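Sanity check

After download, print the first record. It should look like this:
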Amino acid sequence: MKAIDGFHATPGDLIDARFNSVILEHLYNWLRHGLNGNWADIWSPAFFYPYQNVLAFSDNHFGTAFSYILLRYLGLSREISFSGWYAIGFCLNFACSFLVFRRLQFSAFASSAAAFVFAFALPVIAQDGHSQFSYRFAIPFAFLALWNFGMNRNLRSLAWLAFWTSLQFLCSIYMGVFLTIFLATCLLPIYLLTRNTGVISAAGARVTYNSKSNCIYLALLIVSVLASLTLVMKYQAVSQEYGFVSDPWEINQMTPRLESYLIADRSELSGFIGKALAENLSTSPYRSEHQLFLGVGVVIFLLLGTLFCWTSKTTQNSHPNQIQIQAGKIACIALITLFFGTLMYGVGSIWMSLTIIPGLNAIRAVTRIILIMVFPVSIMVAIACEKLYYSETFNTDAKKTCLIIGTAILLCSETVLFQNSRTPIEAWSQRIHILENGLEAPLNRDHILFVVKDEAKLGYELPEVDAMVFAQDRGIPTINGYSGKFPPGNDHNPIERCISAQERLSSYAKFTKVESNSTIVTLMKKIITTPNISCGLKK
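Expected structure tokens:
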């Protein structure tokens, strides 16, 4: 609620937040009108016009748009719906992780503390400028399904594993890739720790295909795998079509360093740690991506949980019990693997050497793997809380109450005092009002919008996103655009000079190998632009 100022603001700035709202609004409009052919192709929202498949330039929100669409159908504005969509994502993260911890037999106290860490740890809320990562609720369910498969080796668990992993891919390609890597790091420890508790051979899934339930789970497995593969293949095809090439220097700059795990610049309690001990990242253009410090309270419980996990003697009736300790050991091994596997050592890292694998080189911000790492961290927090709550030290109701209050203070203080990035809703409408007043002529459905960059003002993003929002609200295409990737050439890339509509259309003609100028001439006649002396269509 702080991030959205009680629905009076939206999380983040006027750039990425509004870009994400454009994608969500596109899906809403497509669902309303696209099924009967009155809206653009779902993969081709009407920015970067006339380029196609531009939705695959960034996250598509297929798995998250349901809440936004519901709020829009209820009659709320796009700004309020966007803020509500953001808040619902965090509610789902907390509720789903709490449910998973309860399924792992943790107490309500331990489950709620761990769920809070998963949903609201400092690195998570530090991504308020990238709201596409707010939906992570499938991660705990995917781990639980993998755990169940390790215990039972049955088709049902495998189907749910595929489903939740696929759903996370639909929520965010980034999170889907990182989740897959996390689950892969869990495979060996799960096998070693559960080989004596379940069927040893994974091939013995004991599937009887004449069983109705097994047929359903088999169908779920096939559909989930096909959905993930189709999505990944679509992105791969678009990447090849547009010739996207990753920048090794950029990946290097956004790969975690040791000091990255000390940085929390917007924490009023522990921000000084990173500022004092991570000075070498102070001049980095990507320091905001290195905000990986978990918080003092979370680190304390992480260390306690790790200690208890590896030193406690357990039975089925102890606290923590055998199941919880096994889950903790798996989480601990996976956490260590992810930590060292993505850590930058001098000029290289294990991750950088793995970017030869197709798809991994498309992951620019490796630091965002912390959004997955927070889940095994939360398991260790749950173990610490479980051990303390049932220890002899806290053997009375009064002492348990003090423990709960102390835990809440330690885990929640930095989150509560965190300096959120947010933008008043009025700022959205003000930008659009200024743009509308600057148009040379009234708009109709046949027009194409082009907003010219004012070279006297810094920043290329704001006019591009202004055009995207304004054009979408009026149901027309725009040559402007902003996304994680850009069309080929230098006529859309993030540079400070003004680029005319004719230059951008000429780049499109070159890309599509259109030999005649008739296409450009036809499109130019439809363009309505904002006036600018040095650039554009002003006569």
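If your output differs, re-run the checksum step. Summary of this record's structure: Residues 9-63+424-529 form one domain.
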